[in-house]
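Title: Prediction job returns without error message
Component: structure pipeline
Severity: low
Priority: P3
Assignee: unassigned

Description:
Job completed but the reporter wants confirmation the result is attached to the right record. Sequence as submitted:
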Amino acid sequence: MTDSKTEQRSYKKTLNLPKTSFAMKANLVQREPEFQKRWAHIDLYQRLRTAQHPAGPFVFHDGPPYANGAIHLGHLLNKVLKDLVVRTRTMAGFDVPYVPGWDCHGLPIEHKVMRDLGDKAKDMNAMQIRRRCHTDAEKFVKLQAKQMQRLGTLADYDNPYLTMDSSYEAATLEVFADLVAKGFVHRALKPVHWSIANRTALADAELEYEDRQDTSIYVDFEAADPAAVYDAFALAGDDRPDQTPCFMIWTTTPWTLPANLAIAVQSHFDYDLVRLDGNITIVASRLVDHIVDLVDGAKLQRLATTTGDKLLGLTYRHPFIDRTSPVVDADYVTLEDGTGLVHTAPGHGADDFNTGHRCGLDIYCPVKDDGTFDDTAPDWLTGLDVWTANDKVVDHLRESGHLYHAHTFTHSYPHDWRSKTPTIFRATEQWFVAVDQPAGDTNQTLRDRALHVTADDVNFVPQWGRNRMRGMLESRPDWCISRQRAWGLPIPAFFNEAGAPLLTGASVRAIADQLRAYGSDHWFTTEPRDLLADYEPAADPDAPDWAASVLADAAAPLTKCLDIFDVWFESGSSWNAVMRQRGLARPDDAPAHSDLYLEGSDQHRGWFQLSLLPSLGVTGKSPFATVLTHGFMVDKDGRKMSKSSGNALQVEDLLKEFGADVCRWWVATLNTDNDIKVDHDFFALAGEEYRKVRNTIRFLLSNLSDFDPDTDPYNFTDADAASVDAWALGALNDLITTVTSAYDAYQYRQATEALFNFCNDTLSATYLAAVKDRLYCDKPDSPRRRRTQTAMHHVADALIRLIAPVLVHTADEAWLSLNATDLKDQSTCVHEQTFPASIDVPVHNAWPAVVAAR
């Protein structure tokens, strides 16, 4: 008898057993850094730039993340999606230079630095704080760049763009100079969203809306001329009550009542004069019943009705300030809630401001930058903050008998996105980019231009982004671009002794030249006349009359503006500071500077919109041809993810546990059109899918160890059309079409679903199961086995290329194994390949019926 082990060994020698260097266990956490070093060593990014690009350029611009803290799940999603664009477009034959950027200025960094300094900050000047901020931003740029590269992303990390670099700052000022020269920039006293916590103005894009409890009050303002009111209601003689009538207003911000300067009505509404619990008051006719229902047992008597136009010009006395004010007309007065009479404080609201400006009212704001009342307010309010004043005002109105009703309610209210504290509307002197001022070469408004291009010229993915962005453009106010902080790019304006500004296109360009050479710190350390040394007011037709004489007189007072730019203006100028300045933008005759911008859906009112407006103002064209947006990360229960709530997953932990390729596969399988649910188990599932794809590739590679694609390929003929190998190649052709089309349309979920199903069903469950015996048992060079190996080589080659944009490390490892080489081989890399072409192979038309029958 023969020994069983000996017999086993002898049979083993008769089989064509699989053999490959492509391991079953990926060891991604250990192996991925090795491939990243390989790409750095061969300078993969620059090699791709010097390669042939038959499809031409694809201009893709990176929106800058903020340089504070480590990357989070939002960065993981955003940066992987962007990398999918870069790699899929590159493998489609395009040249895709991609410059990563960082937003380095602004309040969040300064706030953190000030918090870390504590009491020391009080004794530090602006330059000392700026140097600390610069160091802080620099540190996190380096950290985030390292983490982004650990994700396997491909970009020009050796030459990123930073908004605090002098060349970027100068290019931003050049955008500003053109906007100034074309008449889009103005300075005005207007109410703006004000952060009390950080003592600075905020733009719409810096607001978050959170639920807040406030007090809603209904207040009677006594008429200054009762007879005129009764005349308006056509009441005469005995029909006139022997009582002073009132105007009932409604407000949810009692603290703004000290600044009340008018009551607004709608001229075509009907208004009733009613006796309500003993008081005579005026309310909109359609709201009378609602107001009565507010107070249990309230008694009502309707006395007369008139229209709003009869109330215009009537006057009333303020309930606790010695002031008489008018009743005015306003088309924003509605009958949805309140009383139909709107409390108007021009210093505390956008509509109020417009009404005040139209009616010649003062833009009065008694609230200081710290949120407390100044000494123009009543003594009992002076020094109080607005939130404390809310209760004080209500109590005072109740004691004086002017309060009809008060109740607390919950509503969505704007908060400072960084301090998470409620904002207020406060009138201050600020710089604005006007959206409704006809200006520039075409004498069109920025709003009109933006609405035109977003309707006709820009593609939105997903499509609903078009209406969302257009809705925000339709309702947006003028863009407040000034901030009252130290860490940022200065607004290069100067003021004479009377406070008149010097700000022209030429003066801004002169400062841009200085900052290009010396950086924005130069503004804070240099005297005004030295900054303007190269500016010639005599050669500037827009220079104010006083500029030449003041600049010539060293004793004449001249001061610098202390405001800095809104960081959105800086990042919104990147189409010029990066794409045009580096020669990457589309040609001047192209309809847009870039082919694609990709960010979260919040950027419809942020970076997308605030890049669009200056680009249209300066160049007349959009910065982007396509806008692609993704949703936000929420936990599996739909709650927003944050460190404070304890439901956030850390990217660093996910990379240590699963590796970058699994994380990338997870991102590519998502439906990113809306918010994205995240849970640790979802990454575990992505890991299982990854292993299935990897093991399928491994089976292909291991059965090609004795196959030389140069000498062993089988030539398919019509006689092979009925073979399972021909069917597999036909299925591969379908896969190539499906995946490349999905990549082209940014439908990465569709691509990965097709790839997984091909590996799991078409290959593992069907084709590979059918050919396993012949691979193991046929003569090594038999025609049938070589035919199968030829098909498998085509499949492996194509599959590795198709997964390369997603599984960047795994695909390169598999590519090296397929080409019988290793990490040291600098001559080949999967990321330098293009997507596979269809295989020319005859496939019998009976195969669809066979597959269906199976």
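Comment from assignee: result matches the submitted record. The mean pLDDT is 92.
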